[in-house]
Amino acid sequence: MKSRAIFLSTPKRITQTEQYYKVNLNPLWLNQYIFELSGLNEKQTAVINQFSKNVYPVFDVVTTALSGIVLVKAHNLINNFQLTINNYLNDSPMLKSFFSRTLDFYLNNSKPKWRIGGRVLDFNKAPFIMGILNVTPDSFSDGGKFIEKEKAVEHGLMMIGQGADIIDIGGESTRPGSDPVSLDDEIKRVTPVIEGIRNHTNALISIDTYKSQTAKAALEAGADIINDISGCLFDPQMIDTAKTYNCPLIIMHIKGAPKDMQKNPVYENVSAELYRYFEERIAELGESGLDKIIIDPGIGFGKRLNDNLNLIRDLKDFLFLGKPVLIGTSRKSFIGQILNKETDKRLSGSLASLIISIENGADIVRVHDIAETKDAVNIYRGVKNWSVGRME
Length: 392
Description:
Elements: E1 2-7, H1 11-21, E2 33-38, H2 42-55, E3 59-63, E4 69-74, H3 81-89, H4 93-107, E5 113-116, E6 119-122, E7 128-134, H5 149-162, E8 166-170, H6 183-198, E9 204-208, H7 212-221, E10 225-228, H8 237-245, E11 249-252, H9 270-287, E12 293-296, H10 305-313, H11 315-318, E13 326-327, H12 333-339, H13 347-359, E14 364-367, H14 370-387
Parallel strand pairs: 7-8, 7-14, 8-9, 9-10, 10-11, 11-12, 13-14
Antiparallel strand pairs: 1-2, 2-4, 3-4, 5-6
Helix pairs in contact: 3-4, 5-6, 6-7, 7-8
């Protein structure tokens, strides 16, 4: 049995969900979760139906037209919900596990707190700002600007001064249509910059690479986090590298490779497909002993315009996976498609997309424009703190 969270964030998403599953949903469920349960056997389906009848109105079942799938809705959970789970689901461990997990998801608002060297990355204090530092000649926005070590180090330190919590350093462009670079060239580009920044600051540094040897060299040079666009699929040795250094690992979703990822990518349901991808990757990495995992839906990496927009809208789905979420929309082509603006004119669109992403659960925003992003995040924090009476 598998489960997937679906957050009904807009009337359009309710309609899309009804059309996809061929069901009728209650319009009053706007801004609430429903859960897809798939792979159920007859006994489990019967238990679910019995459970829903006995504990209504805590729980609803929506039978779908798709074989082996039901949609369930947990209402505002009452105090005796755990007792109800125990009474009705003792004979069905998988269902009991799902509903216990659902209860914890609703009631437990704490996020992970990771110790990285002598520092602590506490996601209860999110969102965090990740500054982009491309040490490449051909990245889509800033290619060639920081290919020299001194300029790259200077820019990295400037971003930290402007409020970046993490500096993400990459030595190979992964823009659509880009060609890979050699391992030696990538290492030669990134390690001197990492060392240079590390000599001046204790700020967190991530290495943007899908090559395990580059990641190893970067970690030895002073990096703290691995940011792998392939989710450790391009180079399986990346798993061992992350495990050896006990470092956080960002896993992204990409359809294809950078060279061909934008050549007619197709999804039937992009949010469902990515949810399954992350569910499987988290399980596999967990079996290898890795638990410091951050997920990134990979905006613009093998995605069409509507795919990107739907993923930003549906970010709350991925919170049910229990991992921090990173989003990278800065200056990307979908913003240009909507606004009809060139790369260097997309700041307002970038800020709008990242604030929506934060509202929908993003813990880290990966951006080019640190000062402007810091201002936007500070306004967001101020409004949210004021609304709960904690303005300081």
